[in-house]
Amino acid sequence: MIRNLFAAAIFAALAAGLLTAAIQHFRVTPLILHAETFEGEGGGHSHGEAAADHVDAAGTADHSHDAVALTAEDEAEEWAPADGFERTAYTTLATVLAAAGFALVIGAVSMFSGIPITFANGFLWGIAGFVAFSLAPAYGLAPELPGMPAADVLPRQIWWVGTALATGAAWLLLAKTRAGWAFAVAAALVVIPHIIGAPGAPDEPSAVPAHLATEFAAITLGTSLVFWLVLGTLFGKLNDVFARNRVAVPAGATA
Amino acid sequence: MNATTNVSTATQSLSISQRMIAGSLALLLGLTLLVGTGFAGDFRLHNGAHDTRHAMGFPCH
């Protein structure tokens, strides 16, 4: 059964992740690359040392494909995937691995809560995952392009994780009980992170044109919705298939 | 219909401890993957997963 859970999670994540990576390649990454052409212009933005490192790294990768010329230390200091195939390959890999991470996390929630992920309810798991991990965090931290002003990364990561956990807990609570108090607690869990408020961006002009930023926000949220619906539905379908096979096989025939 | 029955039967046939073990393993591996792709500060992980972080709404930079 443990093997079935992992197999269903991994296969569903592979399919949903590859589909998402394809959408990202055609609709999302071009916006990131476009935004990066404005990064460093106008001098108005700052998002900490990490960002400065990143700009340097991206710039270096652009201009020196003969990494051989760099000393080993320089190379280690400034490594970033080269634009083109290498960058696309890394993005695809990272998206598939993140997909596997999300799949295993909802698989774990299913195991802990005793609520199975099936073809019948996989769509709902997908919607819950989208709201908890994409929509609720985005409500406070809008999808961000390189070059946009933003608060320090650690406080934003803490708020992101806290919001995802609280929103996910609200879903789980309502999945387990529809008592009146549960609605009240769930509403509080959903709302409190937004009352606390996400770390605000510094009041600086963005290097990125507004139309790029709005397009990016809409497309990334839409892509995340597709990802989560496919992941949840497929995860449920595979769980059903594996469970059926398990029932069909005589006890003891599988490890 | 049938599938759902089978699945819930299969899930319920698991003991609590089996579910906790499966859940813990899945949670551990899943969080490791998410931290590595979405949160780790190491510049190699950051730069390798950069576009994914932006695309999936993880805080980046």
Automatic annotation (TrEMBL), chain B:
It comes from the Bacteria. InterPro entries: CbtB_put. This is Cobalt transporter. It comes from Devosia epidermidihirudinis.
